Amino acid sequence: MRLTLAISIFVFMLPANLCAQGLKVPAGFEVVEFADGKLANDIHVMTVDPKGRVIVAGRGYIRILVDDDGDGKADHAIEFAQTPKDGAMGLLWEGDTLFVMGDGGLRRFTSKSGNQADGPSELIRAMKTGGEHSSHAIQRGPDGWLYVLCGNNAGIDKSYADLPTSPIKEPTAGCVLRFQPDLKKCEIVAHGFRNPYSFDFNLAGDLFTFDSDNERCVSLPWYEPTRF
Question: Which of 92, 148, 176, 205 could bridge to 99 as Cys pair (CB 3.0-4.6 Å)?
C-alpha cells in the first residue's frame, strides 16, 4: 500500500473546502479527497477489510467505499449494515467477522460475501456506547487477545475483571479491556484515562494511546493536559 493512500484515506472525512484551502504535509506525502459526503456523511470511524477496501461507519450505517477504477478515489459505496443506530465508535474486520462497538456494547457481524452482513449483529459484551466519552476502539493484540478502549463514561466497573489474572480489579475512569481469544471473559489492563479514542501496538507489543485533557480545569493547578 502506497504512502499516499494512508493520507488520502483520512482526508475523505474532511470538508471539501479544507482540501481546497490546502493542507501542509511532509515531503513525499500527497493529499487527495478519497470520498465526499455523498457516499458517507458524519463518519465516526473507519477500518480496512481483507480486500483492502475502506470501511466507514456513522449513525445508522456501515459502508464499504469502493474504488472501481483504481484511481485513488471511491466511486461508490456498498451498504454493509444499517446499524449501529448510535453510530459505531470502533471497527475491526477479521476474516468473515466485523467487530463493531455500538448499540450498547461490543458486537460482531458475520459476512460470507464480504459485502453485506449475513444478519443482525451478535452482542458479545454490554457496555455504554454512542456517547462522546463511552466505549471506542477495538484492536487485536499481538498476544491474540481482543483489546477494547473505553472512555470515562463507558461504565466499566469491577464486574469486567472476570479473570483472577486481571491486573486491575477496581477500575477508575477510562479503561483498556482485554478479552480472551474465545471472547468469553476479559481483564482490565489499564485505567485512569479520561477519553482516549484510539490506540495501537508497537513491534514489541507495547500499547500506546492518546488521552484527552481535562479542559474543565484549564489554568488550574490540577489541570491534566493531553497525554500520549
Answer: 92
Measured distance CA(138)–CA(99) in Å, rounded: 8
Q: Which residues pair with 45 in a beta bridge?
A: 57
Which sign, positive or negative, has the C-alpha torsion 81, 82, 84, 87?
A: positive
Secondary structure letter of residue 68 according to DSSP: S
Measure the CA angle with vertex 54, ends 101 and 79; round to 5°. 70
Contacts by 108-111 with C-beta closer than 8 Å and gap 24+?
109/62, 109/80, 109/81, 111/80
* Contact between 81 and 64 (Cβ < 8 Å): no
pTM: 0.89
Q: Which residues contact 220 (CB under 8 A, 6 or more apart)?
A: none
Q: Tell me the residue length of the chain.
A: 228
